[in-house]
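In line with agreed milestones, the collection of sequences with tokenised folds has grown. A representative record is reproduced below.
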Amino acid sequence: MASTPVSTLIIFIAAVSIAAGVSGVMVSTVGDISTSLEDRGAAVTQSIDTEIEIISDPGSDAIVRDYEGDSDGDTELVVLVKNTGDRTIPTTGSAIEVLVNGRYVSPGEYSVEVVGGGAWTDGDVVRIVIDRALAAGDHRATVIVGSDHETLRFRR
């Protein structure tokens, strides 16, 4: 008869040990999920807060400028982009990407300056000057900032 309480005690100790191990794993897993959700939430918030609008007039002659005294047809494309989001957008590095007629423009081929100076905050405008030869015809310039992108269609 004495063996029944000993067997029960051993099974009880084993069950408590297994439950402690499982709860340790669960606490660790819940912590990892929580951290992942916080990171994802921050990324989504930043994406939602990033909004731009191209405010250049596609019918304006100011979009495409010929280099003065240049006879080989080189031009520069000038695009005005307004920050309509809730966060300050950096104007250096890879924060701004540009495509002209579907082709990637490397950062060395364009310059970005905030009109009026300072940071590119909500309501401010940047001037993007792209060094690109453009033939006569229809063209498009796309500016990508984070997950937001805007396209300007114009005719030269």
User: Anything to note?
Assistant: The two ends are 100 Å apart (CA to CA). Residues 52-155 form a domain with the Immunoglobulin-like fold (CATH 2.60.40.10).
